[in-house]
Amino acid sequence: xxxxxxxxxxxxxxxxxxxxxxxxxxxxxxxxxxxxxxxxxxxxxxxxxxxxxxxxxxxxxxxxxxxxxxxxxxxxxxxxxxxxxxxxxxxxxxxxxxxxxxxxxxxxxxxxxxxxxxxxxxxxxxxxxxxxxxxxxxxxxxxxxxxxxxxxxxxxxxxxxxxxxxxxxxxxxxxxxxxxxxxxxxxxxxxxxxxxxxxxxxxxxxxxxxxxxxxxxxxxxxxxxxxxxxxxxxxxxxxxxxxxxxxxxxxxxxxxxxxxxxxxxxxxxxxxxxxxxxxxxxxxxxxxxxxxxxxxxxxxxxxxxxxxxxxxxxxxxxxxxxxxxxxxxxxxxxxxxxxxxxxxxxxxxxxxxxxxxxxxxxxxxxxxxxxxxxxxxxxxxxxxxxxxxxxxxxxxxx
Length: 398
Known about the structure:
By secondary structure, the chain is mainly β. Helix content is 5%, strand content 39%. The strands form six sheets. Strands 1-2-24-23-22 form a five-stranded antiparallel sheet, with no helix packed on it. The longest helix has 17 residues, at 7-23. The two termini are 15 Å apart.
C-alpha cells in the first residue's frame, strides 16, 4: 500500500471546506424546503480523524468498482475496459469478451457488480451505454468471469438481461448503478437522457427513461413489482420520475437508497419505494443551468414524493456506500457519497430516515465511485475530466 502524496493539502482542505460548503449561496434562494432539515443540515463539529492512502494510480478513467470475494477489485473503465486490480494496486490486462460501448459524453462501460452467489456462479453483472441503430441506451449484461494467475482473464457466456428503451441518440444521463437486494432481486437505476422534450418520459410508465427497474437475476420481472398487469406500463418499473441516478446502495435494513443528479441546486437523496413518483421534471428543487426555472418552477405537487434531502448548491453525486465497517467507527450507520463537483466524500449521518448532519472529507479530486472494502476501509475512485486517468484511494482511521 502506497501513501497518498498530498496528505498536508488534504488536511488543509478538510479544515476549510465545511464552512465554505454551508456559506455558499443557494442557486434558488426563494425556494423553501418542505420540512425542517430537508436541506443544509448542519456540518458535524466532530469530524472523523481519517487518512487517505493511494492504492493504485495511472489507471484509465474509471467508472465503477466492486470487490470480489478474494479481496481483488473489479473495475470498469469508461472507454470500455474491465480490469482486475490486486491488493498491491497492480492491474491486470483488460479482460477479453467485453462488448462494444458508446463512450461519447457520459456513456461508456459503467457500473459493475458480482452476483450474490459469485463464489459458486462466477457471474458478474455490468451496465454500459450500448451502441444501437438510431443511437444508444443503457444495457445490463451478465457473464462468467474467468481469471488467470496474471490477474487478467475473460468474460464468457455473455448474456444481455435488460435494455433500456427507447433508444436515443444522445450522450447524457445513462444512470446505470446496479444494486442487489437481500432477496436477490436486482435494482437498475436509469437516467432520463437529459434533453428536452425526451426527459418528460420520466413521467411515462411506458418508457424506461428516468426510472428504477427491479428484476430477477435473469432479467425476468418479479410478479410483485408495482406495475405488473397495469395497461401501458413496463412491468419492470419500481419507481419513476427520476433524473439521473448515479448513486445507489442498501442501508442496514436492506432498503434501497439513491442520490440523483438534479439541476443546478437540486441533487436529491431518496429512499425509492414501489410505485411512487419522484417528480422529475414536473417538480424539483434548484433551477436549470441557464438560471431559468425548470418547467413551472414548482417544488411540490400532490401525488409526487419529496426528497428525503436535497443539496443547493449541488455536490454532483456519483457512487454511494452504506458504512457498517469497523475501520472508521465515527461513520457507523452513515451513507458515504462521492462528490464530483464537491471533489471529496460527503458523509450523511442519519437519525431514522432523516439526515441529521453532514460531514465533508475533501480529497482534491472528482470522486466517481465509492465502495466498502472487506477490510472495513472506504475505497474511493477518482477521475480526471477529459480522460486523464484515475486513482483508487483507501480511506481509514488515522
